[in-house]
Give the backbone structure.
Amino acid sequence: MAGPLFQNSLYVVNIINAILYGVELVLYFQILRHVYNSRKRTPTETSLTALSTALVLLNTIFWTTQVYFGEMMWIVHVDYPGGADAYWDNNASVWYQTWGTAACIACNLINDALLAYRCYVIWNSRRIIILPTLLWVASLAFGIGLLYESGRPQGNYFVGIATKFVTAYTASTFAFNLIVTTLIVGRIVTVGRRLSGLAAAASGASHAAEDFHAYTGAVAIVVESALPFTVFSAAYLVTYGLGSDLANAFSFYAMFTCLSPLLIILRVLSRRAWTRESGTLFTTTISYRGATDYVTTTGDLPDKMVFQDLEAAKGALPPLDIQELDAAE
């Protein structure tokens, strides 16, 4: 049964969600601006715009249903017999609450799928995402069970067998993000150290170091790995598993199912994200300021390219891919 701590946590998280939703809208309109200002719109940009729109719409459904339920519980039915606690117990399975939860789960599954793809891109290996894919399927199954048990008549997200599905769903999602986050962070840090060593041993190291930092620095680690989602979902999982009403206060982690992919998409559109295009580690559309245009997905430099050559070739050479270099040998 809901209590004072439960009600206070629910009130606080609605405020936090409102702030994060505002951040989401800012990111979304920045994405739209990038696409609108693009001279030649590509199919990738169109797809990313559609994906961003879907994520924002799903998160809007989740956020508005939470806010609306709070309004109904604390304002419209302020004189409900038994108070706000009784209203929650009797209306937790109302249809729009289930709708909001379904939107949140769908948003989370899309986010996890995108994160798995980013892991595949950064590692350039399908085998690396086998376990995350299995965990994603498990999350889908537990999410369906969660919706059924919490949405049926007299069902409750925090009571009965629904709690088992919630714990299983949150645990599988957390395990997925923990593994993928670790893989992405480990890959970025490892490649970053290798490239820093190469840059330090070459002329023009200051230019190269700046380029490398854009793809291996702290911002790249946080954005590419969706680190905030992993951290806050861990806090939610622990408090919910302990049966603490404080878990509500950490449920704002659900907003990062939209925030994290929007940050990744914005980074991709800004040409600062990792990509497999043309067999290179970094996007082939960045300017010739250093050696990053020619770094391979294994973190190595092509045999015929050295930093001195790149410095002399600034603005004079077209983008080269690995296949072209191999054919030239």
Summary: The longest helix spans residues 162-200. Residues 277-329 have pLDDT under 50 and may be disordered. The radius of gyration is 23 Å.
